[in-house]
Amino acid sequence: MNQGQQLADLVHAPLAGWAYSRGDAVAIRCGLQAITFAQLHEAVQQRSLDLVTAQAPATLMVNDALPMIDRLVDFLGIIASGRCAAVADPEWPAPVRQSVSDAMPTAAADLPAPRPESAFYVGYTSGSSGTPKGYRRDHRSWTSSFRACLDEFGPDAGRCILAPGKESNSLFLFGMLLALWSGAGVVVQAQFSAARALDTLGSGLTPCLVAVPSQLMLMVEVAKRRGAGPIDAVRLILISGSRWIRARTAELRALFPCARIIEFYGASETSFIAWMDTDDTAPMQVVGRPFKNVEVQIRDVVGDELSDSGQRVGLIYVRSPMVFMGYVGGAADDTAALRDGDWLCVRDQGYLDALGRLCLAGRQSRMIVTKGKNLFAEELETVLAMHPAFESASVHGVNDALRGRQIVAILKPRQGGSDAPFSALQLVAWCRQSLEAYKAPRQFFVCHNWCLTPSGKTDHRALAKLLHHHLEAAVPPSSPCLTPLR
């Protein structure tokens, strides 16, 4: 591979060209702050030079205490130096942040210039133990994803993007870097605001929007309260992070009548897997057709597990140039991706329907997706069981029109436990002492008739059925009893 081809496969490489050909154009805008491509390239080069001169460690955490634009400069400077940029979640509790920082290498490094196969990014996804699990990506995996995005979604994916989320969410980081790689520029938000997002979209600055479903539904609600008219300037909406509630597609189309609305399915470890133009008549299980550079196999089919349409459900394996390098330090747990040569499985289960569309049945483990983020039930159950008033907990996700899934906890009172009064708000505060805010349940129920398996373990499936009947029944069943905690 010649030098020109190698540069084409580096995430930051096009910045130099854009600084030369359209240096005065805005590269990143955040509120009243903005930086042009020329300014961005200069700042990135300076940051890179400083790191090389200091022989900084091979992996560096992006400084999330900086303003949003400066964080992106820091990220790009780190990768331009040949190093790997690790992106923390600013909502991590102090103990979690410290444990991740302690695992970072500290030895000085004299590194070669970055290459397509060089690691450039470490993102984090929560492990079942509660400790964030780092995953590493190389340059080519994301430049391949950029090209796939433009190839499959069309030229509007190469226009200025609104990415109204934190860079610690890989979906929004991807949108930001795609916009810089393509030279279109990006508008970001330090803190998501549906009202400001609507103002930006209405201004015509950002024909392309990358968002999670909860953000879109909030925008629809704010627009209704404002009595706002349609926003014609939006041409493309890319939705991921959790399943889009297709029953609300008509409202979204009314707000953005000129937009092509696309749902795509993937994972932090795989990047893109499948996509579709949103279709409110499609079964909810359908996530679309595989991208052109993605192969899909359904393996380890469970003989007695059938979809509603009678298809055999199995583990979804993919092969593509967009998959990750591996977990940081070999980190793995019972939710870690499975590898078989070039094939990768993130333990999602599904099937291919008669039309060749990929259908998602669910995660092999009990992971819940809420607000576009992953939550493992076991992590939250452990924190709740540490409360002096309870001895067991069972955590579930229920449908929520705004968030996609709402977190609900069922609690077993501790015999002889604390008699101190407690409320739902106090339990939320308890959870937030150890966990990110989004992991705190929205509802709590107390159950005295605890369901157990024959082996004496909590029967989560039975409790889930009980919760479903309680929430769906016009008159909730009285036995066994679930008592709402106010």
What does it look like?
By secondary structure, the protein is an alpha/beta fold. It has 2 domains: 302 residues, ANL, N-terminal domain (Rossmann fold, 3-Layer(aba) Sandwich); 118 residues, ANL, C-terminal domain (GMP Synthetase, Chain A, domain 3). It contains 13 helices and 26 strands. The strands form 5 sheets. It has a 13-stranded mixed β-sheet, sandwiched between helices. A 5-stranded mixed β-sheet has the order 3-4-5-6-16. Strands 23-24-25-26 form a 4-stranded mixed β-sheet, with helices on both faces. α5 links the parallel β4 and β5. α3 packs across α4. The radius of gyration is 23 Å and the shape is globular. The termini are far apart. The model has no long low-confidence stretch (mean pLDDT 87).
Provide key terms for this protein:
13-stranded mixed β-sheet; Rossmann fold; five-stranded mixed β-sheet; 486 residues; 2 domains; globular; GMP Synthetase, Chain A, domain 3; single chain
